[in-house]
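User: Predict the structure for this protein chain, please.
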Amino acid sequence: MQIAGDGHAANNVMRHEYRELSGSQKDLIVLIKDRGLEFYSLLENMGQSREISIAKTKIEEAVMWATKHITNQ
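Assistant: Here is the predicted structure, written as structure tokens:
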């Protein structure tokens, strides 16, 4: 399977190379991660349950998807 040079990597969801982000993109990623951590920390102080575990996982997913959106632009 040929990958290099055939344009495959450019359309690959599992990007092989990083691209340079602008300052505003970096700032937005930091803000998203900070807000995610703030919400995650709130849940940490509520005790433990299956529901809290799921909520924390969903926060992690939301941060990941938002970051992926920014880095895909």
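The chain has one domain: 20-72.
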